[in-house]
C-alpha cells in the first residue's frame, strides 16, 4: 500500500486498520485496542509478548489503569518527569483494556506518551492505540516508512517529511518499568537511563 496523508491514516486507524507512524524511539505499528489481534497476526508475534498502549497525553491513558489515589500521585510524578518520552510504565490494567492487548496476563498494561509531535497529533484524534515496533517478531525494528511499507504492504503507512518538527527518532526502544505495588522494577533499559531507585515514589 502506498503511503497516505496524516488525515487518511487517522481515518484508517479509526476504521480498524493497522497503521504505522514514526515515534521518538522506533516507528510503530498501531491499531485500535479492540483490534489488537491484528498486530499479533501481522508481526507473527507470540501472544506472551504484550502490546503497549500509546496515547497523546497521560490523561488519555489513566482510564486504562486501575489505581488508588496514592498510586496515581506516584505515577503522575513519574509521568511529569519523563513524559512525553521513551519510558513505558507497566501498570495494573482496568476493565477498559481489551484482554487481547495482553492475552497471557491481562492484569497489566504498558502505557506511554511519545515525545514525537506527529505521533501525538495522530493519537489525539484516534485515542490511545495498541502499538509495537514495526518488524516481524525476532527481527530488528524497521527504521523508515519506506522499509515498513515494503515489508508490510497490508499496513497503512504515513507519508511524512523528516523536516517535520521533532521528526527524528533515537532508534532505541523505550525503557520499561513495572509497578510492583511498592516500587518499580526495570524490565528493559532503553533510551531513558534510570534504575528502580530513581523512579521510586516518582522521584
Automatic annotation (TrEMBL):
Which reactions is this enzyme annotated as catalysing?
Answer: L-threonine + hydrogencarbonate + ATP = L-threonylcarbamoyladenylate + diphosphate + H2O
Q: Answer yes or no on keyword ATP-binding.
A: yes
Report domain YrdC-like positions. Answer: 3-192
Task: From the Swiss-Prot or TrEMBL record, state where the protein is found.
Answer: Cytoplasm
Q: Does the keyword Magnesium apply?
A: no
Q: Which Pfam family is one of this chain's hits?
A: Sua5_yciO_yrdC
Would you identify the family this protein belongs to, as annotated? Belongs to the SUA5 family.
Name of the molecule in the record: L-threonylcarbamoyladenylate synthase
Q: Which organism is it from?
A: Laspinema olomoucense D3b
Amino acid at each position: 500500500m502506498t503511503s497516505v496523508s496524516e488525515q487518511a491514516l487517522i481515518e484508517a486507524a479509526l476504521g480498524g486498520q493497522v497503521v504505522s507512524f514514526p515515534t521518538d524511539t522506533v516507528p510503530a505499528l498501531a491499531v485500535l485496542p479492540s483490534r489488537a489481534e491484528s498486530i499479533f497476526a501481522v508481526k507473527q508475534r507470540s501472544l506472551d509478548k504484550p502490546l503497549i498502549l500509546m496515547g497523546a497525553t497521560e490523561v488519555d491513558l489513566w482510564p486504562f489503569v486501575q489505581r488508588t489515589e496514592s498510586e496515581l500521585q506516584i505515577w503522575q510524578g513519574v509521568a511529569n518527569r519523563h513524559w512525553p518520552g521513551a519510558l513505558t510504565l507497566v501498570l495494573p490494567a482496568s476493565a477498559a483494556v481489551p484482554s487481547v492487548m495482553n492475552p497471557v496476563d491481562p492484569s497489566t498494561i504498558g502505557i506511554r506518551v511519545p515525545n514525537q509531535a506527529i505521533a501525538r497529533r495522530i493519537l489525539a484524534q484516534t485515542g490511545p492505540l495498541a502499538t509495537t515496533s514495526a518488524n516481524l517478531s525476532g527481527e530488528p525494528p524497521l527504521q523508515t516508512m519506506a522499509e515498513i511499507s515494503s515489508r508490510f504492504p497490508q499496513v497503512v503507512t504515513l507519508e511524512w517529511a523528516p523536516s517535520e518538527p521533532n521528526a527524528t527518532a533515537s532508534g532505541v526502544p523505550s525503557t520499561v518499568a513495572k509497578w510492583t505495588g511498592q516500587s518499580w522494577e526495570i524490565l528493559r533499559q532503553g533510551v531513558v537511563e534510570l534504575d528502580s531507585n530513581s523512579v521510586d515514589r516518582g522521584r
